[in-house]
Specification:
Bound molecules: zinc ion
Strand content: under 5%
Shape: elongated
Oligomer: single chain
Largest sheet: 2 strands, antiparallel
Length: about 325
């Protein structure tokens, strides 16, 4: 469909007889707009009607008809039904379901809204600010940091003789490495997961080296962002690296890590530690995947990484690095 062809409006109406000059063009546009409407493509149809308006004298009857048509909301097409805010279970429960859905929505907002989402939002907002401030230099460093993190996973996989894809970048998300073989146990899986943040810690520290010789805010911005992204990845949930790391730890080790995370949160006042703590709480009390025997090496790596990222974020915040 030829929706939205650029068209130039020249003479709108013949000044002598007020006859419309673009009658054929208008007919064509109206047909195209109706075809878009029939196909449920409302935005394109609106675009075409607006184009048609450019060809019509504003006071003409045709222009008035199109404007009236645009003011009338088009019926949503069968492919794009209007979204229903309530989940299915809530609909089945009737008014009680509606009340429950409302309360759950509120509770979720209170629980995550005050800690998790706010911290996430401010961090991503600061990435945006850094990017705007330092432009391509920050963008390049940021992507490089992600690449180094992924290469950490690749390095460990090679060590264990496991086949994997090269890192694939997903815009606005990061990067992933796909595994073709399975790790032999939870300990190996944990070390593969933790190797990303380990190399990431190296990248964050590397960004601080030029700061020692030629101080500039961009180095601190890159070190802070890289440390933050890697620390976020240590949250022990979903497919995040921390989720794999935690799988190899027993209850006592998980409790120790939670304690360490909370101490670091108290010491650095970095909200990101609260996100990691929430994940650790979940792995301690809700998800029953605790192995009988914890992996000492994985615990040491996990705890060491938490300390390194805490130290980097603290040093930047306290301007200990000048
Ligand atoms: Zn990773």
């Amino acid at each position: 469909m030829n929706c939205g062809t650029p068209l130039a409006a020249v003479a709108l109406a013949c000044p002598e007889c007020n006859q419309l000059v673009h009658a054929a063009k208008l007919e064509e546009l109206a047909n195209a707009a109706r075809a878009c409407e029939a196909a449920g493509d409302t935005p394109s149809a609106t675009n075409i009607w607006n184009h048609a308006l450019e060809f019509l004298p504003p006071d003409s009857a045709q222009a008035a008809a199109i404007r009236q048509h645009l003011d009338r909301p088009l019926l949503p097409s069968s492919e794009n039904p209007a979204p229903d805010a309530k989940p299915n279970w809530a609909k089945r429960l009737g008014p009680l379901g509606a009340a429950l859905a409302f309360l759950l929505g509120k509770a979720k907002f209170l629980f995550f809204g005050l800690t998790k989402i706010k911290t996430l939002f401010t961090m991503f907002a600061s990435i945006g600010v850094y990017w705007a401030l330092y432009g391509w230099k920050f963008g390049l460093g940021f992507i490089l940091g992600i690449y180094v993190h992924e290469m950490g996973h690749v390095w460990r996989l090679k060590q264990f003789g496991l086949r994997a894809s090269v890192p694939m970048f997903i815009p606005m998300f990061g990067a992933v490495v796909s595994l073709y073989d399975s790790p032999k146990d939870a300990g190996e899986d944990a070390r593969i997961g933790l190797a990303g943040p380990m190399w990431g810690a190296g990248a964050a520290l590397a960004f601080l080296i030029p700061q020692l010789f030629a101080p500039a805010p961009i180095w601190l911005a890159l070190a802070r962002t890289t440390a933050w992204m890697n620390l976020f990845n240590l949250t022990p949930v979903w497919q995040l690296d921390g989720g794999r790391g935690m799988r190899a730890l027993d209850r006592q080790q998980r409790l120790l890590l939670l304690g360490l995370i909370l101490v670091e949160w108290w010491f650095t006042s970095q909200g990101i530690f609260l996100i990691v703590a929430l994940g650790a709480l979940y792995r301690l009390f809700i998800l029953k995947d605790v192995p009988p025997q914890g992996d000492r090496g994985a615990f040491n790596e996990y705890a060491g990484l938490l300390l390194v990222f805490g130290a980097i974020l603290w040093a930047i915040k306290e301007k200990a690095i000048l």
